[in-house]
Amino acid sequence: MNDEFKGKSGKVKVMYVRDEEGGQKPNPRTGKGGRPAARQEENRRSGPRSTRNNEESGRPRTARGDDAGRSRGPRDDSARGRRSDRDDRGFSDSPWRTVSRPPVAAEADAGDEAASSKPVIDPELIRRQRQEETRVYGENACQALFQSRPESIVRAWFVQSVTPRFRETLRWLAANRKAYHVVDDAELAKASGTEHHGGVCFIIKKRMGMPVAEWLQQAQSKDCVLALEDVSNPHNLGGIMRSCAHFGVKGLLVNDASLLESGAAVRTAEGGAEHVQAISGESFAAGLEAFRKAGYTIVTTSSHAGTPLAQAALPAKMVLVLGQEREGLSDSAFQQGDISLSIGGTGNVESLNVSVATGILLAEWWRQNA
């Protein structure tokens, strides 16, 4: 039979375990014989200690009065030893055994220790992972990405209206335990960082730029590579990738491969980003030189000088070099060209948008070499 006792503080619980054999078992601490069960019950109910217990203690009982509050002198070791032989109620050979439970504070410390044993996420690791990821949004862009490289998807968001068209994507995400969320338009705008999300957004692992040497090993006999010097506007990059996919140009030599996977660039490409590959060299000039040594013709562009496009014969293997609209190609890049081309027009504007000029030039290469 088990009884439970709580102290005044409520923090320490004491459990008394009584011998079921009538209290005849010797006390494990003193080695003395146990009391009969009837006498134990009488002592438990009566409360005051017996005269024999007072004699065993080696000192008379003091009355609970004025003397109770006085400070007591130090006890000798023998008295302390005799006192330790008794239980909390003064019975030296009681059949009740006390078991103290740990206080609440100790339990809290144990909980803190268990919490501290959980793995700690390294902020530096999270930062590196974020650098390796990018957001892609837009229905056509996300459909093309899923068809091309679904394993790169980390997380996805959809609005309810587009889910019927992404039924296969949703099944694949669920089967591969990829997190996805069906949210409202405002929540998707927060996740994608733009209001022009097209109803869907993916977080994906970025692709790395392919080294020039690796590209040259698998290049075909007819190969047009586009080289972009300091072109960083995502909408221009998206339009260029869309034109490349349309005219069969698969390689883009760029300074920073991650620019081709920005959300706005991929959205503007309307799926064309999945049909081109970023190429990187030790530097932009070093990349051009490597292509020249491999037999490619370096073709530069200019709005003021060069062979008119309608009169030029474009080689089957060439690198078409374009620069930013405002300043065009740098002098060093322009001087590396084997052929310089210009696009004729009325002259009412100084030059064409770089993505528009790219489309015109690639269309002519496709016409001559397709």
The backbone outline, from C-alpha atoms, is: elongated
The profile of the biggest β sheet is: 8 strands, parallel
Distance between the termini: 96 Å
Low-pLDDT parts are: 1-5, 19-23, 48-74, 76-85
EC number: 2.1.1.-
Domain RNA 2-O ribose methyltransferase substrate binding: 135-210
InterPro entries: Alpha/beta_knot_MTases, Ribosomal_eL30-like_sf, rRNA_MeTrfase_TrmH, SpoU_MeTrfase, SpoU_subst-bd, tRNA_m1G_MTases_N, YfiF_prd
Keywords: Methyltransferase, Transferase
Q: Key features?
A:
four-stranded mixed beta sheet; eight-stranded parallel beta sheet; 370 residues; disordered N terminus; alpha/beta
Could you explain the architecture of this structure?
The chain is 36% helix and 20% strand. It has 14 helices and 15 strands.
Short description:
By secondary structure, the chain is of the alpha/beta class.
Indicate the topology.
Blueprint lengths: L1 E5 L6 E6 L18 H10 L4 H7 L19 H8 L11 E5 L3 H13 L6 H9 L1 E5 L1 H10 L4 E7 L7 H9 L3 E5 L1 H8 L7 E6 L4 E2 H6 L5 E7 L4 H14 L3 E3 L9 H7 L7 E4 L3 H10 L3 E5 L5 E2 L8 E7 L7 H5 L3 E4 L11 H16 L1
Parallel strand pairs: 5-6, 8-11, 9-10, 9-14, 10-11, 12-14, 12-15, 13-15
Antiparallel strand pairs: 1-2, 2-3, 4-7, 5-7
Helix pairs in contact: 6-11, 10-11, 10-14
InterPro entries: Alpha/beta_knot_MTases (IPR029028), Ribosomal_eL30-like_sf (IPR029064), rRNA_MeTrfase_TrmH (IPR004441), SpoU_MeTrfase (IPR001537), SpoU_subst-bd (IPR013123), tRNA_m1G_MTases_N (IPR029026), YfiF_prd (IPR016479)
Protein name: tRNA/rRNA methyltransferase
GO biological process, one term: methylation
